[in-house]
Specification:
There is one protein chain. The chain is α+β, with helices and mostly antiparallel strands. It is built from six helices and four strands, in the order βαβαββαααα. It has a single domain (8-118), classed as Glutaredoxin. Helix 1 links the parallel strand 1 (8-12) and strand 2. The model has no long low-confidence stretch (mean pLDDT 90).
Length: 133
């Protein structure tokens, strides 16, 4: 998968240490470089999420496909897993149990401050893996 275009955008909350820590883990897994991280709170994030209610944009991550389809929260888990090396079995689980996937995603996202404390992730966590065009 090396050398494939960064054809999917993964939007994240740039002010959330847990979100940036999680994104780092996903970017390390994305050895093929299919994902381009973009903060929700920026010009490109605003443009890509124009159809998403402004009050709920920061409630979850968002995956934007090459066709500009926006998938949010648990609905993004299955297509995201399919993009990652070895992620197809996990994608199968997410696709088989979409309701559970979304509930678990929303539970984790709703408790991200607790996860950050448990994992000792500072609110000022800086991304270690930088995207390069």
């Amino acid at each position: 998968m090396t050398g494939m275009p960064r054809d999917h955008v993964l939007l994240y909350d740039r002010d959330c240490g847990f979100c940036k820590w999680s994104l780092d883990k996903i970017l390390v897994w994305d050895r093929g470089g299919r994902l381009r991280p973009v903060p929700i709170q920026g010009e490109e994030g605003e443009r890509l999420l124009a159809a998403v209610d402004r009050e709920t944009r920061l409630d979850s991550w968002h995956l934007v496909t090459p066709a500009r389809q926006v998938l949010s929260a648990g609905a993004a888990a299955e297509p995201l897993a399919r993009l990652l090396p070895g992620g197809r079995p996990l994608a199968f689980v997410f696709r088989s149990f979409p309701g559970i996937t979304d509930r678990v995603y929303r539970w984790v996202a709703g408790h991200r401050d607790r996860w950050a404390r448990l994992l000792r992730i500072d609110a000022g966590y800086e991304l270690k893996r930088r995207w390069r065009p």
